[in-house]
Write the structure tokens for this entry.
Amino acid sequence: MKLSPSITALIDSLRHLPGVGPKSAQRMTLHLLERDRDGAQQIAEAIETALAKVQNCDRCRNFTELDVCEICSDPKREATTLCVVEAPADVMAIEQSGGFRGHYYVLMGHLSPIDGIGPEQLGLDTLCERFDEGGIEEVILATNPTVEGEATAYFISQKAKDAKVKVTRIAHGVPLGGELEYTDSSTLAHALTGRTVVGE
């Protein structure tokens, strides 16, 4: 069946969203056109506004509408502790946990030479400048437990150590309430590697 160019374009556009395949994109398109044109208009306007206003924070590279984001400009946060993450979604996850009150640095990716992503693309030169400026006592490496994430963490840890900054890595292991029997082998391997002495 040949669809109109506008419908085809909308289906193709929705497929840019993660996890949305051809069938899902088609279903969303038909739903918006058939039952929720007001909702479609709201989505279109919200996307247009976000694209026009959202930029990267000058300090941490997270998404914001300001030159310096709310977290970086909050005087109640611990400026001496810096958590390095791969993406804005990681900042959201950590903030929702409520367990961190320091600052962040968002790489917007990880080292991947095969994809042409090196230190420059991740803003690691700016991060190293912050280490050299002083004021940062601890950097927490919260990159993903993948080969690329580990390589990125190692690179940053060497630069931080050169600047005499304490380096820690978030633990990756068995979740609270989880059972070993149902834990995947990769998670168990990380848990064993990152084991700690009881009582410390």
